[in-house]
Amino acid sequence: MSTSQPDASRPSGARAQDDRATPDALLHTRNGTDVSPEDLVLAAGRDLTEPNLEWARRKLADEGPAALDKLLP
C-alpha cells in the first residue's frame, strides 16, 4: 500500500496557487462588447422567445449593460 499523497508529485508552488480563489478584481462578466437582448435572455436562463426578448430590451433600456452584470456571478 502506497503512503504517497495524490498531490505529492506536483510542485508546492503550483499546489498553493491552485488552492487560492481568483480575486474579484480579475473576474469579468463582459468583454467590452455591447450587450444584446439575446445575451441577457440567455444569461437569465430563459428561452429566446419574443416576450423574453422584449423583457430584455426593457431591462437594457432601464439598466444598460449593468443588467447583465447583475445576472452573472
Largest sheet features: none
How many helices? 4
Give me the Rg, rounded: 20 Å
Unreliable segments (pLDDT under 50, ≥5 consecutive)?
A: none
Order of helices and strands: HHHH
The dominant shape is elongated
Structural class: mainly alpha
The rounded distance between the terminal residues' Cα atoms is 43 Å
Number of strands: 0
| Average pLDDT rating | 78
* Helix content estimate: 40-55%
Beta-strand content bin: under 5%
Outline of this structure?
By secondary structure, this protein is an all-alpha fold. 47% of the residues lie in helices and 0% in strands. The protein is built from four helices and no strands.
Question: How would you describe this protein?
Answer:
The chain is elongated, with a radius of gyration of 20 Å. It has helices spanning 12-18, 37-43, 50-63, 66-71. The termini are far apart. It has a domain at 29-73. The protein is built from four helices and no strands. With 73 residues, the chain is mainly α. Residues 1-36 are annotated as: Disordered.
